[in-house]
TrEMBL record:
Subcellular location: Cytoplasm
Keywords, ordered alphabetically: ATP-binding, Cytoplasm, Magnesium, Metal-binding, Nucleotide-binding, Transferase, tRNA processing
SUPFAM superfamilies: P-loop containing nucleoside triphosphate hydrolases
Species of the source: Galactobacter valiniphilus
PANTHER family documented for this protein: TRNA THREONYLCARBAMOYLADENOSINE BIOSYNTHESIS PROTEIN TSAE (PTHR33540)
Molecular functions (GO terms): ATP binding; metal ion binding; transferase activity
Compositionally biased spans, kind Basic and acidic residues: 1-12
Biological process terms in GO annotation: tRNA threonylcarbamoyladenosine modification
Function, as annotated: Required for the formation of a threonylcarbamoyl group on adenosine at position 37 (t(6)A37) in tRNAs that read codons beginning with adenine. Is involved in the transfer of the threonylcarbamoyl moiety of threonylcarbamoyl-AMP (TC-AMP) to the N6 group of A37, together with TsaD and TsaB. TsaE seems to play an indirect role in the t(6)A biosynthesis pathway, possibly in regulating the core enzymatic function of TsaD.
Pfam families: TsaE
Region annotated Disordered, chain positions: 1-44
Family statement: Belongs to the TsaE family.
Protein name listed in UniProt: tRNA threonylcarbamoyladenosine biosynthesis protein TsaE
Length: 223
């Protein structure tokens, strides 16, 4: 499927809803990022949470959504299976956007319109991109000001998209620590992701996340 074509499966899934379906980011005019990584960011102390199960990951993301606004950039960091897409699903629920959030690996980016008059959610998967320069092939510059932009695998690729950002690192221990009461791997045919404990580290960088905004962020996450 080309980058500029809407996934028909996504279109059909939400045809009964009045708002627009999630759409794919197309190929825009070539633009430069608004900043470079050499500009020293303003950073804060990290916030760390333990997330016993997938439901907790989604709940944390939903809570985080309450302090986000159009123009915010989030970089999701973590290995395969760490819970990046699970986190984005919770974020989408908190923002009140059109659902059907899945990993956009093969189409690179999807735009989920708001159903409540808030910012869109732009969900990007940079796993297959070799450098920050390849992000210029997407129309992120055209949507940044009206959307919350989430970039999976964004480290060393997406920092230049905005002056400020949240870096959210999800760590899943090797083998995955089990949530209380979960079956051991040998007691179940398949160990589901929703019983694996994760650690979330939130790093707020740039002038958007001043002391007041960081305090609101910590409060939203229950810290």
């Amino acid at each position: 499927m080309g980058r500029g074509r809407l996934d028909p499966q996504l279109r059909d899934r939400h045809a009964h809803l009045p708002a627009r379906s999630p759409r794919l980011c197309g190929r825009p005019r070539r633009r430069r990022c608004r900043r470079t990584r050499r500009d020293p960011p303003v950073s804060s102390a990290d916030l760390t949470l333990t997330l016993p199960a997938a439901a907790d990951t989604q709940a944390a993301a939903k809570a985080l959504a309450s302090v986000l606004r159009a123009g915010d950039l989030l970089l999701l960091i973590g290995e395969l299976g760490a819970g990046k897409t699970t986190f984005t699903q919770g974020l989408g629920e908190g923002l009140g956007v059109r659902g059907g959030i899945i990993s956009p690996t093969f189409v690179l980016a999807r735009v989920h319109p708001s159903l409540v008059g808030g910012p869109e959610l732009v969900h990007v998967d940079a796993y297959r991109l070799g450098s920050a320069g390849e992000l210029e092939d997407l129309d992120l510059a055209d949507t940044m000001d009206r959307a919350v932009t989430v970039v999976e695998w964004g480290r060393d690729r997406a920092e230049g998209l905005a002056d400020s950002r949240l870096e959210l690192e999800l760590i899943r221990p090797v083998g995955g620590a089990l949530a209380p009461g979960a079956p051991a791997p040998w007691e179940s045919e398949e160990l589901e992701d929703d019983v694996v404990e994760r650690t979330l580290t939130v790093r707020a960088i740039g002038p958007r996340w001043d002391a007041e905004a960081r305090a609101a962020l910590a409060a939203a996450l229950g810290l």
